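Running this now, will post back.
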Amino acid sequence: MAYPRFSAGDVMDISAALLNDPAKAIFTYEAQIPYLTVAVQELEEHFEQNNLPVTNETSAVIPVDAGVTLIGFADDAPAPNLPDDLIDIRRLWYSQRDQDLWLPMTKREYLPHYLSTSAVGALTLYTWNNQEVRFQASSLDNDVKLDYVKPVFPAIVDENTILSLINGKTFLEYRTAALVARFVGENATRATELDGFAVFGSDRATSIANKGKQSIPARRRPFRASWRRRG
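Update: finished.
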């Protein structure tokens, strides 16, 4: 079975139809793209907030030479670098260089100052501050890898941008239509009604994704963003 694929244009076609403009005479692709972008950002943040499986990723091995004390993004730090698509870190692992014997690292708000004067052999502690992973210098070469949260969608360039996602299309259609109705059509009543359908779409997508995680005890937050107001 092919991986689910739909384009930004597919979403905007339905959005326009929900606004009684299937020919897009008024609500063109160009008019809708900024609001589809907002809807995509909302859904992505909702998925990230609830740690849905579609946002989970594991990095490639990151070599950390002896004496190195941080891993940052390529634009801000020397090698080694964090993944470009990293949103947040769930877990860090370390192993001695090329041993492939992975042990978890423990996150701290600050590194203990009593360890700052000597090198260690194992990278057991780390901090995630200022968009950098920091740890005490090791006397050995090590490897690190991350379990992390990644973004789901690419930037919306035009109607041909592909949005590959198993669930979430219904939310994007209703939410895009609601934003367009409110800010382009200036129809608050229609926008509120469409927002209600968008909530149902988001709840379904979250519920389906969470069925595979029922053995993990966690409290899920329902999608009730500040935009859902009565007109």
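The two ends are 43 Å apart (CA to CA). More later if anyone needs it.
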